Amino acid sequence: MSYDQSLITYAVSLHFTQDVNDIIAAATKEIAQLTGNTYMLDNKVPPHVTIGAFHADKRDEPKLLQLVKDFAKTQVPGIIHFTAPGDFNQKVLFLKPQKNNYLATINKALHKIMLPVFTEGENGYYLPDIWFPHTTLATRLNQSQFSQALEIANKIALPLEAKVHDIGVYLCSPFAELKRYEV
Questions:
Q1: Which superfamily, per CATH, for 8-182?
Q2: pLDDT of 106-132, one tens digit each?
Q3: How confident is the model over 28-47, as pLDDT tens digits?
Q4: Phi and psi dihedrals of 93, rounded to 5?
């Protein structure tokens, strides 16, 4: 599907309590220091699981933010269980959560309210039927960096239980946090 180039991609993501954020952020920082790949730190990407990506005109940003704010009010702080490191083509290293009922339900519910108003972003990768939840530790890795990063990811004590604390909205390119709403 071809998208209007004037549209902006917005991501909607789940965030965790500070204890889990600290564990994930420490691993991300250690990976950056070891590999020299500082993309996650340079862009100030917080630990998160993206549950949706949508295209919108900049003029519709207030409407998008209001929909997410209203959505967050209807959600409960669920639990995510990270079970293992995973990767996308050895270029992106992430923590893989178990795709439980909470994640499936919140992903589907978000799309139910957003898709009548906005189009899906990121080539539809976050749509309920094809979504692969993950928490990125490092991205844009070369083969050597991936091997080093995986060693650090394997040191994270898993399974790791994460309680969802809030829902955030981001601009995707350039990456920028817009708002967070507590659940």
A1: Cyclic phosphodiesterase (3.90.1140.10)
A2: 999 999 999 999 999 988 899 999 999
A3: 999 999 999 999 999 999 99
A4: -110, 135
